[in-house]
Design goal:
mainly beta; 2 helices; disordered N terminus; 157 residues
């Protein structure tokens, strides 16, 4: 294997959402949220809760890229490091978006760790849409942010 094939294969394995989102027709009413790495610390089935610490509030709306409509009931999973910079089960959560697609998640401000900047992992799934894996990067010293999550519709068979 030479040329670009190994690079494309690695990109598809590490960032599948980026490759498939780019394959869409590009006629989205709302710009899809860029995909980011899942990372090695994802654990499915995090407890349903809206708070895993205090000091940082992340909120927003889950929407469809097709028409910007809110996606109620979308499953949003979060995981981040604790204040000491370690991943643990106490800093994992699952939320369901409200009727208007809204969500609110409260945590500690995630500290950076070598070589990563401060970040919160996010995984969003909803029937009829491609699962989105992304990350939120808080601004230094911020106590919160708005982070809308825009999902790409799944291809129809």
């Amino acid at each position: 294997m030479n040329g670009i094939f190994p690079i494309l294969l690695a990109a598809m394995l590490l960032f599948p959402g980026v490759i498939f989102a780019a394959a869409g027709d590009g006629s989205w009413q709302c710009k899809p949220t860029p995909a980011d790495a899942l990372g090695p610390f994802y654990v499915p089935e995090a407890p349903v809760r809206a708070k895993v610490g205090e000091g940082y509030v992340l909120s927003g709306t889950v929407r469809s890229a097709a028409d910007c409509a809110a996606i109620s009931g979308a499953r949003i999973e979060f995981w981040l490091t604790n204040p000491a910079g370690d991943y643990d089960d106490d800093h994992r959560a699952t939320l369901l978006a409200g009727q208007a697609g809204e969500y609110r998640f409260e945590s500690n401000y995630p500290p950076p760790y070598t070589p990563r900047p401060s970040h919160i992992h996010v995984r969003v799934s909803a029937p009829g849409f491609r699962t989105l894996v992304t990350q939120h990067y808080p601004a230094a010293g911020a106590s919160g942010a708005t982070f809308d999550l825009v999902l790409v519709p799944a291809p129809q068979p």
